[in-house]
Amino acid sequence: MTTNPLLSHLAEMTANPFIPELHTDDCDDTSCVRCRTPTPSNLYEVDTWLDNAGVFTKQYREQVDGELVITGLRIGHGEHRIVAKFGNTIVRHYGGSHTVRPTGHPTGELTSAQWNAKYPVGTRVKAYPNLYGEDGFTTWTTSKAWTLGGHTPVALVEGYSGGIALTHLDVIEVAA
Q1: Is the pTM above the cut of 0.70?
Q2: Under a CB-based contact definition with an 8 Å cutoff, are residues 137 and 159 in contact?
Q3: Where is 71: in which H helix or E strand?
């Protein structure tokens, strides 16, 4: 323990903040400050949330359709580690422990394999290459979806060079 008041103050400011227990068993997962639901698009945000709490995390990888992809986060280490796959809810408890449970609110995000099974190449889409909802354009897919960087499902579209995250593609349903 340091006796220098300035160093003591800096140590207090950089210490992990105490966050009182705010989680309840009947929370709605989406607004609870003690819960996070990892998805491919927010993986690094959830990882940072856990890192800031002083919790060791590592990407969890599995073979999916012959491809090694990230499917969630491994939390903790040793025999006490847990795995939160995409779509599960990570609950942070008082005292720093974590549990994982299926979420009551599915993410709606498709993996590349799920996308390919549902939508063939040539599917009409509204694409948002930058910020979702802004500067979108109507086009069609020119490739199957694949997993970029082991975590982000993307596809190519006509009129844009580079993969666009599936979360930034809105399928245009064609009336039969």
Answers
A1: no
A2: yes
A3: strand 67-75
